[in-house]
Amino acid sequence: MNAQVEQALDILKRGDPAALDRAIEALQTAVYSFGMKVCGNAHDAEETAQETLIRLARSLKQFPNARALAVWLYKVAKTQCLMSRRQSKFAPAQMLSLDELMPPHEEGGPAAANPWGVTPEEIVLSRESRERLEKAVLALPEHYRLVLILRDMEGLNTKEVAKVLDISKDTVKMRLHRARVFLRNELEKYFRREPPAARQGRTTTSVNYA
Amino acid sequence: MPDPRCKKIFAALSEYVDGELPVKNCRELERHLQGCKPCLAFIANLQTTIQACRQYRVARIPKPSPTVRAALLKALGKL
Prior knowledge:
Helix content of chain A is 68%, strand content 0%.
């Protein structure tokens, strides 16, 4: 989100009225993308973008810089998104135990630099493994998912994530590590079952970015 | 990972890959990694996972709704 928010603010600072639509589209991209990652469906992401940007229109003068605006947008968008997704406010918060996340110690086998035989680019460009990644993120309990999305997908630093979520930096680090390991374990199940040779011919690069 | 050292290393891996682990702990972790294939494979996969998250982009972004566009244009016009 940060890059798009900076782009929008740059356009606004230049004061070019013809470019205002580009600034609005950059803000839409920023908030909608975050909503999709957190909510996992287009309807909730659109609702999140709409409500967040209308609130932004009411308070646009209050932001000294792009970072401050981005933190505000994440805070509002997160609340909107969770309101859309929430089934019961009394649902207990699920905890991820580090002991349970720790995989079995498998001796033998080569210590390959890339044990899955796939690069990060290939994961996000292949429809199948990309969907695996999306499903794994959505399977994370909410408070872990938010930390992972803000830190690893949106590029906020630990301090900014702590500010958006009103939690301590230590809690951010703890949740981030568990969320990453959870995600790694989910992808491991897929790549172990579907080694690169078996995936050949089924991987496509047909994802169209806006 | 039955080795108690693996368990200790396991808890610190994110801080290590983020460059936030104190130097002394980094050295200890790297010494362990040199002799522990499972931990080495785990950290490689963890880094691939993190990089995939960093490179992930939402595929299709709809245009802002007319209501949003009108509200923002009005607010921006006042700046």
